[in-house]
């Protein structure tokens, strides 16, 4: 203890004697109880708007705008109305097609690129990676005008194809980065062994790399789906009725004509439920993609 | 010997090139073409409502833009929005990361609840807050205020920018929490234990051990949030449409108004160039930091 650099006085002198009547066990229990209460209180507070939205979706419109109450007779009428009157399913389909289509395209383009960066690095690899990252930092509003005019001229405005193209390019840098970090974690020997046995690059990728890194590829894909699903700058500006995904459909509830809180809630609950589950499943791996490997 | 090695390198180089070509070419097109068009448009007299007025304008658009008081209002709002949200999410995220790092029953579920808002699409969170939480007569907040005998607040007319800040903070606090929680998990338990043995209290441990450990993760959070917060759009679009007046118009929304409502392509492009430059100032620091991390 004498040789070690001690910043704080030794325990015995520092610790105050326990107050009479409170055993250390009791105070530890009290601390744990307080911690649990605080943790849960904050978590519930943050989650409350989502909880309230889900609840409101099962109310009638008149109950939805009445004084807040936890007691009501649940009904599915808003869910039915959202589908029958607004055609919820059409917008959901647009979201599904665009989110999964752009993810698939981004993965197909990114896998060869990430493969060569991880296993055949050159002097330029690092520069290329950083350059890809920098494209992600281009604010979309900086290219809104040309993209809008180009899309108008070639007839891509308000089409699923147009939105899919934009989302593919939007997520491509993140997908390449995330795949790169997963590929790099794979021991090089495994691919080398395959090469020794005469596997071609394509075989190497399809039969060794992809199966071995499947969990990583899956979470990369899920992150891309989440980002596309929730994207609301391009969807609001490039689509109107035909190709509008859920983000744009929900935005149509912002019109001031009457309050449709129960329907808004029902539609919103359906729109966010799958993504919440995806997010919960991949929260750990997602950090890699969101921070470009800077935080692991 | 040297000859074959050189040949091998060329073949390897070709392979790298062909593998990376699709991703690189697409990103190059996505970035260079629209950006060049934005710069070009910003130097043109180009208004879709006045097709006869064309031609080179030089820096005229920039002159109009910089002498327009709306730009400075929008810049001020952007700064206030980004600054406030950053302060709330970084401080809150750090404290919550410490809290959710402690062991307590149901911690996993509490964590999941607390990070959930990050996965909710922006149009949903904005409308849920605007209607069900902040509505002046039927919202949960006004009901709460009234049950405590306080006057209800008409959030979006009396505190428009504050309302937007609250909504955006609610979406991004979980992001900061998610990243910082990942970073805090790599904190050396032995180090904390040793400090505790030496008599350091929880506050000292936080400031002298936890915070220095989180320094890098915190700066990553700040930079990534900055890039996204600079161009917040959907939340404003569905709640206030930039109003009342210009009270909640940020740079992104101003460009949107000029481009898609006033059809002034030249002016909007000049605004876009300004946004790109602002984002790039932040991006340089972020890219540098990621680059440093890539080496280690």
List the helices and strands and how they pair.
The complex is a heterodimer of chains A (296) and B (296).
Chain A: H1 11-14, H2 24-57, H3 61-65, H4 77-86, H5 88-119, H6 125-136, H7 144-154, H8 160-184, H9 188-196, H10 201-212, H11 214-230, H12 234-238, H13 246-251, H14 261-290
Chain B: H1 2-42, H2 60-67, H3 69-101, H4 107-115, H5 122-133, H6 140-147, H7 155-158, H8 160-184, H9 189-197, H10 202-229, H11 234-239, H12 251-261, H13 265-295
Describe the overall structure.
The complex is a heterodimer of chains A (296) and B (296). Helix content of chain A is 72%, strand content 0%. Chain A has a domain at 86-290: MetI-like (MetI-like fold, Orthogonal Bundle), CATH 1.10.3720.10. In chain A, helix 5 packs across helix 11 (214-230). Chain A is built from 14 helices and no strands. The radius of gyration of chain A is 26 Å and the shape is globular. Chain B has two domains: 1-42; 59-295, Orthogonal Bundle (MetI-like fold), CATH 1.10.3720.10. The chains are: A mainly alpha (296), B mainly alpha (296). Chains A and B meet through helix 2, helix 5, helix 6, helix 7 and helix 8 of A and helix 1, helix 3, helix 4, helix 5 and helix 8 of B. Chain B: The chain crosses the membrane at residues 21-43, 79-100, 112-129, 161-182, 217-238, 267-287. Chain B: One of its GO terms (biological process) is transmembrane transport. Chain B: Its main location: membrane. Chain B: It is a multi-pass membrane protein.
Features:
heterodimer, A: 296 residues, mainly alpha, 14 helices, 72% helix, B: mainly alpha, 2 domains, 0% strand, globular, transmembrane (chain B), transport (chain B), MetI-like_sf (chain B)
């Amino acid at each position: 203890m004498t040789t070690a650099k001690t910043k704080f006085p030794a325990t015995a002198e520092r610790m105050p004697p326990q107050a009479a009547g409170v055993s250390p066990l009791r105070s530890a229990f009290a601390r744990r109880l307080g911690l649990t209460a605080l943790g849960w209180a904050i978590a519930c507070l943050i989650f409350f708007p989502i909880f309230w939205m889900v609840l409101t979706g099962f109310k009638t419109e008149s109950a939805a705008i009445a004084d807040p109450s936890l007691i009501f007779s649940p009904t599915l009428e808003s869910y039915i109305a959202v589908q029958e009157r607004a055609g919820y399913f059409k917008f959901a389909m647009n979201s599904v097609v665009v989110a999964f289509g752009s993810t698939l395209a981004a993965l197909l383009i990114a896998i060869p690129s990430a493969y060569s960066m991880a296993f055949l690095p050159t002097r330029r690899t690092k520069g290329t990676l950083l350059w890809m990252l920098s494209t992600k930092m281009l604010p979309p509003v900086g290219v809104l005008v040309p993209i809008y005019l180009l899309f108008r001229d070639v007839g891509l405005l308000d089409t699923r194809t147009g939105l899919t193209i934009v989302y593919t390019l939007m997520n491509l840098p993140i997908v390449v980065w995330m795949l790169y970090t997963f590929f790099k974690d794979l021991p090089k020997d495994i691919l080398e062994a395959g090469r020794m046995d005469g596997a071609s690059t394509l075989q190497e990728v399809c039969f060794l790399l992809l199966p071995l890194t499947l969990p990583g590829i899956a979470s990369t894909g899920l992150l891309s789906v989440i980002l596309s699903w929730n994207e609301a700058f391009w969807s609001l500006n490039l689509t109107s009725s035909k190709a509008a995904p859920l983000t744009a459909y929900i935005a149509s509830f912002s019109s001031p004509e009457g309050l449709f809180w129960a329907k808004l809630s029902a539609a919103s609950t359906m729109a966010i439920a799958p993504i919440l589950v995806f997010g919960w499943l991949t929260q750990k791996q997602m950090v890699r993609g969101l921070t470009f490997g800077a935080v692991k | 010997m040297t000859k074959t090695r050189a040949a091998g390198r060329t073949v390897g180089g070709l392979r790298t090139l062909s593998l990376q070509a699709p991703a690189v070419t697409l990103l190059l097109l996505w970035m260079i073409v629209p950006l060049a068009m934005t710069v070009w448009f910003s130097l043109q007299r180009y208004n879709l409502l006045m097709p006869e007025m064309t031609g080179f304008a030089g820096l005229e658009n920039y002159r109009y833009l910089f002498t327009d008081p709306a730009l400075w209002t929008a810049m001020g709002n952007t700064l206030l929005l980004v600054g406030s949200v950053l302060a709330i999410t970084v401080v809150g995220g750090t404290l919550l990361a410490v809290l959710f790092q402690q062991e307590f029953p149901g911690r996993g579920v509490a964590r999941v609840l607390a990070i959930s808002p990050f996965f909710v699409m922006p149009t949903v969170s904005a409308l849920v807050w605007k209607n069900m939480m902040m509505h002046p007569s039927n919202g949960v907040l006004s009901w709460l205020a009234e049950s405590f005998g306080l006057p209800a607040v008409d959030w979006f007319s009396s505190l428009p920018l504050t309302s937007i800040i609250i909504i955006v903070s609610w979406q991004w606090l979980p992001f900061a929490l998610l990243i910082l929680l990942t970073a805090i998990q790599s904190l050396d338990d032995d180090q904390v234990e040793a400090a505790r043995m030496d008599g350091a209290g929880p506050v000292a441990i936080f400031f002298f051990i936890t915070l220095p450990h989180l320094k890098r993760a915190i700066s990553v959070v700040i930079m990534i949030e900055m890039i996204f917060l600079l161009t917040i759009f959907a939340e404003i679009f569905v709640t206030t449409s930039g109003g009342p007046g210009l009270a909640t118009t940020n740079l992104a929304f101003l460009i949107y108004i000029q481009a898609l409502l006033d059809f002034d392509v030249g002016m909007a492009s000049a605004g876009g160039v300004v946004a790109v430059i602002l984002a790039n100032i932040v991006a340089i620091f972020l890219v540098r930091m990621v680059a440093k991390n890539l080496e280690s």
